[in-house]
Design goal:
There is one protein chain. The protein is α/β, with parallel strands linked by helices. It folds into 2 domains: about 325 residues, ABC transporter transmembrane region fold, CATH 1.20.1560; about 240 residues, Rossmann fold, CATH 3.40.50. The chain is built from 21 helices and 12 strands. The strands form 3 sheets. It has a 6-stranded mixed sheet with strand order 6-9-10-3-11-12, with helices on both faces. Strands 2-1-4-5 form a 4-stranded antiparallel sheet, covered by helices on one side. Bound molecules: adenosine-5'-triphosphate. Adenosine-5'-triphosphate binds next to helix 5 and helix 12. The site of adenosine-5'-triphosphate has 14 residues, from helix 5 and helix 12. InterPro entries: AAA+_ATPase, ABC1_TM_dom, ABC1_TM_sf, ABC_transporter-like_ATP-bd, ABC_transporter-like_CS, P-loop_NTPase, Type_1_exporter. Keywords: ATP-binding, Membrane, Nucleotide-binding, Transmembrane, Transmembrane helix, Transport. Pfam families: ABC_membrane, ABC_tran.
């Protein structure tokens, strides 16, 4: 198809998705074929009608011809409705699969990807871009295909009727298509630019709305509104430019078609004057075909702008699907042991913006032992957790579990054994049960209540009249921060992890509940290797090991008991200096 300014890779990609709905698409092509046949065949009744009327045919015979014309027109309309239904059904299935694939990929991508793309931007890609693609497939792709088939069929039939007129119409149509094709690529770059800016704008709004409470508390509204306004102005300017380009394409296309139609009609008139074999009915038939021909050609002009948007959306979808995660899931080993040791060997990691996460970190935690990690804010404590969980991979050094590099384990298998509980707890709209089980259907209420009991949270759940059926609102709005943390604990221990990472996990719980929970932890964590990231020394005193971070480096690592007695150790000085102090 000469009109499609879509690159080959994107066509290949779309074909792969279209193939998932092979049968409905075959049915569609058959229906489109019948539809085109009727469009070509039906006008011949008009030709017969005109010629018969001119020759004084009986009224009843004329009425039969007219009736056939009407019946076939009705049949064509019915087929058009079926085509629309099957198309919309198939395209929804295709684009929903694409939405699912994109969401899955985005969830699996590494930290570096998520650092670069805000959630709002991803929503625009997964829903906005795929939505545009859906419109393209349902309202456009099939229309374009039928348009081209119809153009070809009309040209053939006009050739059959009169080769010279056929040649004139073909020259006119090919010229028209050539010019439209040239117009098609005009403005594609501005549309791409507009879509990228619009996604970033949605990301901006999303982030500001999420941070509304802090913005209000810190009186940041004025600044936010000013930035919002300047971004809107920028978007408006780009949109104006894009709109001008699209309008130019449509108007220029219309002009080309009008000129083409007029000149072809002139040529046809001349041929009619000199060729006495041509009847009035035949001339009307050719004219009728020409008017039908104008419809797909005009459609193509209007759809050029849609196509440009889809082209831009397709390349953005492809970009998202083809992103090469820096955390590659190439390992095939499975963790089979219950007891897991963790070892860091000269591990260094830098974030994308060249910020040093950790540098040359080495330590070793034996299986089923506990380690408390302390250090000033930004010293790299959470980075250690992200590396063990493989949200990102170290650029240097090796992290191993039971002596094997963690990159050699399957990612899902590795993560399934690690529970990370942090301050940022994500809760979802649904029941308390769903939020604890994370939608796993094979977890019974008894299992949940057992864990809740072990975590000494029974009094809390008994206090809730609806129990596990309690409705949790979006983002856990109807729960306190402490309650959200309790849910996170239940959620984590329900998965029976072998490694538990607590990143400031009890910071929002009241001191009485914290004491209760700490007691429960010691039972639950007996069979786990545990890393506790903390700001308060009291939280980690009872743990087996202490690791002190400073500016991305480990400045001390050792057994708590030994460090407590070593007067030269940083830990000794810290505990001597008192509570609540960071290294
Ligand atoms: N996603 C990120 N992208 C870029 N830099 C980051 C990212 N996360 C952390 N950093 C940077 O890496 C360094 C270590 O951060 P990390 O979160 O590990 O510190 P931390 O000791 O856990 O701090 P806190 O106690 O405040 O949680 C900091 O300088 C921080 O700015």
């Amino acid at each position: 198809m000469p009109m499609l300014p879509v690159d080959r890779k994107q066509v290949k990609f779309m074909v792969a998705y279209l193939m998932t709905q092979r049968n409905p698409i075959i049915v569609l092509f058959l229906l489109i074929g019948v539809n085109i046949f009727l469009q070509i065949y039906n006008p011949q009744f008009i030709q017969s009608f005109i010629d018969a009327a001119k020759e004084g045919e009986e009224r009843s015979a004329l009425a039969v011809t007219a009736l056939f014309f009407l019946l076939l027109s009705l049949l064509r309309q019915a087929i058009t409705i079926v085509i629309q239904y099957v198309t919309s059904e198939a395209t929804w299935k295709i684009t929903n699969k694409l939405r699912l694939d994109l969401t899955n990929r985005c969830l699996a991508y590494d930290l570096s990807f998520h650092n670069r793309h805000t959630p709002g931007e991803m929503v625009d890609r997964i829903d906005g871009d795929v939505g545009r693609l859906n419109n393209f497939l349902s309202a456009f792709a099939l229309k374009v295909i039928s348009n081209y088939l119809l153009i070809a069929a009309i040209l053939i039939i006009i050739y059959v009727i009169h080769p010279l007129i056929g040649a004139a119409v073909t020259v006119s149509a090919v010229l028209g298509l050539f010019v439209l094709n040239k117009l098609g690529s005009f403005g594609s770059a501005t549309i791409h630019h507009y879509l990228a800016e619009s996604a970033a704008f949605i990301g901006f709004i999303d982030e500001r709305i999420a941070g509304r409470e802090d913005i209000r508390a810190l009186k940041g509204e004025r600044h936010i509104l000013n930035t919002f306004y300047s971004k809107l102005r920028r978007l408006y300017r780009i949109r104006k430019k894009t709109g001008t380009n699209v309008a130019t394409v449509i108007n220029a296309g219309e002009l080309v078609l009008a000129f083409n139609m007029a000149s072809t009609l002139l040529v046809m008139g001349l041929i009619y004057l000199y060729d006495t074999r041509l009847s009035l009915g035949t001339m009307f038939l050719v004219y009728y075909y020409m008017t039908i021909l104008l419809v797909p050609l005009k459609n193509i002009v209007y759809e050029v702008s849609d196509l440009q948007q889809v082209n831009a959306s397709l390349s953005r979808i492809n970009e998202l699907l083809n992103y090469r995660s820096k955390v590659e899931d190439t390992g095939s080993l499975r963790i089979t042991e219950d007891r897991l040791s963790i070892r860091f060997d000269e591990v260094s990691f830098c974030y994308d913006n060249d910020v040093r996460g950790i540098h040359n970190v080495s330590f070793s935690i034996p299986a089923n032992r506990t380690v408390g990690i302390i250090g000033r804010s930004g010293s790299g404590k959470s980075t250690l957790a992200k590396l063990i969980y493989r949200l990102c991979d170290a650029q240097h050094g090796t992290i191993s579990i039971n002596g094997t590099d963690i990159r050699r384990y399957g990612l899902e298998n590795l993560r399934s054994g690690i529970a990370v509980i942090s301050q940022n707890i994500e809760l979802f709209e649904g029941s308390l049960r769903e939020n604890i089980t994370m939608y796993k259907e094979n977890v019974s209420d008894e299992d949940i209540l057992h864990i809740i009991g072990l975590l000494c949270m029974k009094a809390w759940i008994d206090h809730i009249p609806e129990g596990l059926d309690k409705k949790v609102e979006r983002d856990g709005k109807n729960l306190s921060a402490g309650e959200a943390q309790l849910i996170a604990f239940a959620r984590a221990f329900l998965m029976k992890p072998q490694i538990v990472i607590l990143d400031e996990a009890t910071s929002r719980i009241d001191p009485v509940t914290e004491k209760l929970i700490e007691g429960a932890f010691s039972t639950l964590m007996k069979n786990c290797t545990v890393l506790v990231i903390a700001h308060r020394l009291s939280t980690i005193r009872k743990l087996d090991y202490i690791l002190i971070m400073q500016e991305g480096e480990v400045i001390e690592f050792g057994e708590t008991k030994k460090l407590e007695l070593d007067t030269s150790s940083t830990y000794f000085k810290l505990t001597g200096a008192g509570e609540g102090i960071n290294a």
